[in-house]
Amino acid sequence: MGDHATNAATESFLAHRNLLFTVAYEMLGSAADAEDVLQETWLRWIKADMEQVLDQRAYLIRITTRQSLNRLRSMKSRKEAYVGPWLPEPLLTAPDVADNVELAESVSMALMLVLETLSPTERAVFVLREVFDVGYDEIAAAVGKSPAAVRQIAYRARQHVEARRPREAVSSGETRAALESFQRALESGDLQGLLDVLAPEVVLVSDGGGVKQAAPRPIISADKVARFIVGGIGKAEVTLTGDFTVVNGSPGLLLRVDGQIDGVIAIRVEDARIAGLYYVRNPEKLTRIGSETPLTLR
Fold first, then answer.
1. How do strand 273-280 and strand 198-207 relate by DSSP bridges?
2. Considering Cα of 144, then 150, then 156, then 162, what sign does the dihedral take?
3. DSSP-derived pairing of the beta strands 240-247 and 219-220
4. Which burial class, exposed, middle or buried, applies to 294 when counting CB atoms under 10 A from its CB (0-12, 13-18, 19+)?
5. How many other C-beta atoms can be found within 10 angstroms of the C-beta atom of residue 78?
6. Are the C-beta atoms of 218 and 85 separated by less than 8 Å?
7. Cα 270 from Cα 257, distance rounded (Å)
8. Shortest CA distance to 108 belongs to which of 285, 273, 261, 278?
9. pTM of this prediction?
10. Is the distance from CB of 264 to CB of 63 less than 8 angstroms?
11. pLDDT tens track for 8-56
């Protein structure tokens, strides 16, 4: 490939980079793996015969999807051996992502966990069709299935996700209000304050990856979650602070213990109360936090 063609390929790749990253991240739940997929996509892209590429966006999505599928299948053994609950790697996103309700929901911790229950092919088809509105023919080329088969897979995946996804989209303002109440109660160790902001059947999922202490399984109910949080803070005898950020398209908290980053909390809100708490403490999933510029997806 000549210099001119290489420059043109580079410009095209960079123009679509955020889109490709989002596709890979939504399929993998790992920003680090998504970056590796983009590197693999780039290496294949610069070897392509540009004169034969009719739709560069579709071609790039196809490469990214195939590489993501390969990596998703190889990640299965890693997840099976994972210590404790597994959560997606938290992604700091630009504030304007929260204004796009559909995009914000598509990268939310709650929906990402639902996507984990799909097969690799179902996940790819769902992400491409429901999130990015890619045509069935293009998806078929990306996943190696017929368009008719892809329609059936898309239908099954959509039914599966709809039965498990959050009941309704909540505005970033509502989420922020609940999060502010949670932050005040968290920093002060106020048990009643936590009980007031947590939904009766709230679920806390904490991911320490076997490196940091975390609950070995999800904790359910406001009373159990509140006492787990307050008890943990009391035993540790530390100063806990929470800084507001935007994580996975929604308001979240960057938690610090004695000034050092300890983890990231994302929440799911229903009826003005927190129904889901997702706390990532695994240091391997926090390497980008604090050093990366928040992403503008797509």
1. parallel
2. positive
3. unpaired
4. middle
5. 11
6. yes
7. 28
8. 278
9. 0.89
10. no
11. 888 999 999 999 999 999 999 999 999 999 999 999 999 888 888 889 9
Encoding tokens for residue 231?
């008890």
* Separation of alpha carbons 262 and 84, rounded Å: 17
Q: In what order do the strands lie in the sheet with 219-220?
A: 219-220, 198-207, 273-280, 260-270, 250-257, 240-247
d(CA 257, CA 180): 18
Residues 280 and 211: beta-carbon distance below 8 Å: no
CA 106 – CA 248 distance, rounded (Å): 9
Q: What is the pLDDT of residues 56-103, one digit of tens each?
A: 999 999 999 999 999 998 888 888 899 999 999 999 887 766 666 777
Place of tokens 């009826």: 271
CA distance 270 to 39: 39
Instruction: Tokens for 107, please give them.
Output: 């990268």
Sequential DSSP letters for 70-138: HHHHHHHHHHHT-SS---PPP-BB-GGGGGSHHHHHHTSHHHHHHHTTS-HHHHHHHIIIIIT---HHH
Tokens of 8: 């043109």
DSSP 297: -
**Which amino acid makes up residue 181?**
S
DSSP 8-class letter at 190 = -
Residue 96 near residue 291 (C-beta atoms within 8 A): no
Cα 106 from Cα 89, distance rounded (Å): 14
d(CA 5, CA 12): 11
Cα–Cα distance for residue pair 297/18, rounded to 1 Å: 5
Radius of gyration over alpha carbons of the chain, in Å? 20
Read off the tokens for 152. 């059936």
